[in-house]
Amino acid sequence: MAGIKKGDQVKVLAGADKGVTGKVIEVLTDADRVIVEGVNRVKKHTRAAQTGGAETGGIITVEAPIHISNVALVVDGDDGKTTTRIGYRRDDVTKTRPDGSTYAAQRSVRIARKTGKEI
After folding, report:
1. Is residue 103 packed enough to be buried (19+ CB in 10 Å), middle (13-18) or exposed (0-12)?
2. What's the rounded Cα separation, in Å, for the pair 59 and 32?
3. Could you read off the pLDDT of 26-69 as tens digits, one per residue?
4. Chain centre distance of CA 58
């Protein structure tokens, strides 16, 4: 997994929608794919539901998944928006137990490799 999460702003690096930026709607970890808002839109034919009658049939346009290697994270850099890889940093934190006592622990934080800032 490349560390991209739901809600991240990404730029498409390859394919028909190359250069388009969008927000990640869903991450499919088992298939190493992501669904990006407004990218890789396909026509889907749907049948009308026989029970309830709420859903009508027809042709709808939906986003199809693309491989996670074809997207890069977009962050705010010094010179506007830039694509970057994801790194990790361990921060020391103080946690509190239910009984009120405290202890030292570490927390993993996602950072942008180019800027070094927390994502």
Report:
1. exposed
2. 27
3. 999 999 999 999 999 999 998 888 776 667 788 999 999 999 99
4. 29
